[in-house]
Fold this sequence. Notes:
Elements: H1 2-13, H2 25-31, H3 35-60, H4 64-76, H5 80-88, H6 93-103, H7 109-127, H8 131-162, H9 169-226, H10 238-247
Helix pairs in contact: 3-8, 3-9, 4-9, 5-6, 6-7, 6-9, 7-9, 8-9
Amino acid sequence: MKFGGKRGVGTLASPLPSTYKPPPMLDLMQKGGPMIWLILACSVLAGAIFLERITYFHRATLRVGEFLRGLARLLEAQRFADALHECASVRAPVARVIHAAILRHDAPRTELKDIVQEAGQLEVPRLERRLSMLAAIVFTAPLLGLLGTVIGLIDAFSTLSSQAGYTSLTDLTLGIYQALVSTAAGLVVAIPGAVCYAFLNSRVNSLVHDMERAGIEIVNLLCDSRNKTPEIIDFIPADAASRRSKND
């Protein structure tokens, strides 16, 4: 009886082992205050923009060297219709720039340069589409987090002042917890968004460089195909032809 009693007392007195479990995501968002939902919407929108632009750039990528080598054979043979068909079959901004130049293959060199430049300028807005929206999200997300921080601190101090300084630590920490969660959420959205924006901007610059290179190459190819010396055709001089007709 004595031994059992001691064992029972020891069991009650010893603390149970406990492990820290982080709060679930939904609970974390609920404690983050109203700004956390706006930050979540910004993250979803930024992810959708990134996926759409990545898909578009993947389709717009073209191996310029191989494509121009194939077109050079057609242009040397004066097969402009086939070259236009090849450009129209490729859904890429580089191909559209080349297509615009081949349509006016008889134009002077200076005019061809202007055509290529204008066609490239028309393609740039398509490449930069929605990037300004992504930049706005990257800039706005930390500000929303800062606003949530201010709202949380205001809530904490208003709770403290409404109870004349006699408030529990739990009520006070709710506002501080909301402030910290809002700040962290804004940074979590802004940092990957800035990396994604820099990556997409580099892809735009790469495609613009490809269009400039293709424009220079296609102008040179068209001018070279025009300046080729035609084959010399043998003919009979006029006096020899008249003598031959008299003899006949």
